[in-house]
Amino acid sequence: MKTMKLKGIGKDLLGMALLFLFLLLFLFNDSLNNSEMLNNIPSALINVNTIFLSIVLEAIPFILLGVFISSLIQIYVSEETLQRFIPKNAIAALIPAALLGAILPLCECAIVPVVRRLIKKGMPLHIGVVFLVAAPILNPIVFASTYFAFKDPFSQTNTVLYSRMGLAFVLSIIIGAIFYAVFKNNSQQLRGNVPVHHDHSHQYEEKKPTIFSRIRDAFYHAVDEFFMMGKYLIIGAFIAALFQTFLNRDVLQSIGTNDYSSTMVMMGFAYLLSLCSEADAFVASSFRSSFSEMSLVAFLVYGPMLDLKNTFMLFALFKSRFVLVFIVTVTIVVFAAIAILYGIIL
Fold first, then answer.
1. 150 DSSP 8-state letter
2. What InterPro entries does the database record attribute to this sequence (predicted)?
3. Rounded distance, CA 94 to CA 121, Å?
């Protein structure tokens, strides 16, 4: 218990340190640019700082909006309410589940414990999987962030946005159907007695919650999620800035011009960066000049479905067989679908 508390404190301190560093760079950016100290700073580092700040500044408003709406859902929407909208028929429930996932602004890390709770309350496993892969992409916050990140003033068509949303909807249904075929309605894939994220709703056990207590707890959740997602955004933006600044341009060009190699690279990149789905579009758009559109869509579809941080969460909350099947299924289905889609387009 003590070790878990220390780890939690360490993560919170890391998050605060990263956010504090970002604020310093943002507040003193103009001073640094006009300072004589720049003469002694390599231009590459200045470029890293510029790219890093531009990515984070574009993404922060969507992070704030996403965590606030997510916290309201956490407090006000019960699992029972969601279950009422899901048909009893296993196959017929796939499409409504994907549609319902479209109104839940939850990132890939926030959705994992929610899905676990839903399955424990009786939701079929394959429907939980649909939520797991659909909700982090098919929601209004991600739609808006992707639209603004890839908005082209010279064109009315935002192909990256439509490809991302269309693929996420179709693939969530396909992945859910695969899991139904593999596991049927077997919900015994959960690990027992595993602690989940702190839930302030336990405060309501004895007395009816007041509007003030609900607002307070909504802000608690929003702050928790902001620090959790903010540090991943900052790490991801920093790595992306380093990647673009220091990677040999010839290597980048050779990878980026080949649709299939660049798709695999960007899927791996999405997995390792573990960006919040509400902000990953701004990181992806920073690679527009180096990577193909096909690979950018792969980055935007694969990352929210599966990344490093939610892999750890999945192994903690679900049995290993389920997680391994999930990893293999999502990876193969996403790569194959994008290759087929862009094979037809191209």
1. S
2. DUF318 (IPR005524), UPF0718 (IPR052923)
3. 18
pTM above 0.85, yes or no: no
Q: Where are the beta strands (DSSP E) in 102-218?
A: none
Please state, as a whole number, how many other Cβ atoms lie within 10 Å of the Cβ of residue 258.
15
Q: For residue 202, what is the DSSP state?
A: G
| Residues facing residue 186 across a β-bridge | none
User: Taking a C-beta distance cutoff of 8 angstroms, is the pair 242, 196 a contact?
Assistant: no
Render the burial of 198-236: b for 16+ CB within 10 Å, e for the rest: eebeeeeeeeeeeeeebeebbeebbebbbbbbbbbbbbb
Rounded to 5 degrees, what are φ and ψ at 274? Answer: 55, 50
State how far the Cα of 146 lies from the Cα of 129, in Å rounded to an integer.
23
CA 342 from centre of chain: 23
What three-state secondary structure class fits 190?
Answer: strand
Residue 274 falls in which region: left (phi positive, over 0), alpha (psi -120 to 50) or beta: left
- Cβ contacts of residue 64 below 8 Å, gap of 6+? 226
94: number of CA atoms within 13 Å, CB side? 17
User: Which tokens go with 107?
Assistant: 């990132």
What SS3 class is residue 318?
strand
**pLDDT per residue as tens digits for the range 190-227:** 766 444 444 444 444 445 667 777 777 777 777 776 77
Tell me which residue of 25, 44, 43, 40 sits closest to 247, measured CA to CA. 44
Cα-Cα-Cα-Cα dihedral sign, residues 23, 24, 27, 32:
negative
